[in-house]
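Form 12-C: Joint structure prediction
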Amino acid sequence: MPYTADISRANPACFLFLIDQSGSMTQALAGQPEQRKMDQAALALNRVLDEISLRCSSGMDIRDYFHIGVIGYKTDPAAAAALSSLLNGTTLQRPFLPISQVVDLAEIEERQVRESDGAGGLVEVTRKFPVWVRPTAEYGTPMCETLDIASQAIADWITQNPDSFPPIVINVSDGMPTDGDPTALAQRIMNLQTSDGNALIFNIHLSGVNTMPIQYPDREGQLPQGDEYAPLMFRMSSVLPESSRNQAASLDLPVNENSRGYVFNADMMALVRFLDIGTRAASNLH
Amino acid sequence: MRLRPPKRLWAPKAGNSQAEYEDASRVVYPHLPAPGGGVARAVVSDGASESAFARSWAAILADAFAAKPLALSSLSGPALANWLEPCQKRWREAVPWQRLPWHGETKARNGAMSALLGVSFQEKKNRRNLSWQAVAVGDCCLFVIHGNALVLSFPIGDAAQFNNTPPMICSNPANNQGLWSRVSQISGECRPGDRFILASDALAYWILREQEHGRQPWQTLMRLNPGEQWESWLHNRRAERTMRNDDATLLIIEVE
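Section 2 - Result
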């Protein structure tokens, strides 16, 4: 059965994040004039990396169950693709680092937050927040070029990890490619496979169109009206594997066997939580 | 009636070192029958790999049960909380709070989680027979085999009931709301020829799956010995994906 490979140090899984840093990402998110798409993109990515780090933490150490890559994409003023591998020490050709090294790259910010005091009240405490990616945005959206580069990196990773859980590409974008239709390039990535199944592409679509957030639609008819890029992003998204659907269902998200890894102005945490690296720690909390 | 010396087999998840093994097991075996009515105890605990300092929490719980088992006759929610309190204190003292990295701070605040299965054996008043009682939270399982038949699978009865969010005991009392409702208890009489198998979840799941396919996996387990034979057998089950790659712990106690 596909998508059941054990995830371990010997058989790590990988996430390759693609983050849109084009000029359109300076626009406001739907219904949140103070929140730009690029702010939300950075926030979403930092949260997901935090979640993955915490899942791999044994307290003092990080277990290298995941390899992580982060590629930012925009163009230069002359519309030439300007891609960068955002984790220090990596390249576009070799964007991946083991999670233990990714953890070390985080800049730690201390923020005051209010938490339950356990007695029905709230107390203000200082908590640490890791930051890997800062908001930035300019010029065009070379999504085709980015998927082409991603495809090569994924193919290389699979060569080195042929029996691992299939790679997962998570694209964070408002979906306005300026270098053509990326559908075929996305399909090329989805055609890459380990012995455990095909690579997966999930899309976090950030939009200024003011409509209900959508998670994991199963057909184009469910997509929001008014954002012309939603069908494109939907078609570029993999159908959720069964284990992912189970995780989404356990969070009361309505999913079925045709649901895709696509969210519209919504969070996608279920898609990093579904990978099974051992017994969960929160069963009494829910 | 007496208990034969127990067999204990264990191994960390493939790819992890022995120092990262987060199950724990203990056996207190005072050569029953002992003068004055001895008590034997066996315990398996399984620290949740996604919680922090789970190894020490699982070991603390196993030590506590081996030293002072939860008595079913007086077990209640408050009694369980009282039993856990010194364990939680020990865990808090074992965490190096001042040296935690950023990811460890959040994890340690939430506390460590562990499943627990404890079995205790008592001499009956006639000094010849034995009774047993078991308590469990989570998916470490007790199998009682008599002859070639599985006569009990506790607390999980079939393989489909396993998932990766079992009930757990937390080292942070704030995260143990509802714990009492997740405690399972059972007791019985020992018969000569009974075999008690305590297994952490990956092995327990394999045992139930095999049994559900009409096989008698305990025959295989009885033949395994610590060392290369056990490790090779485990490696093969993991490689063929009939057993999840997880820490594996097995205790077998026979009544004769």
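Section 3 - Comments
Helices of chain A lie at 37-56, 99-105, 143-160, 183-191, 230-235, 242-250, 270-273. Chain A has one domain: 13-281.
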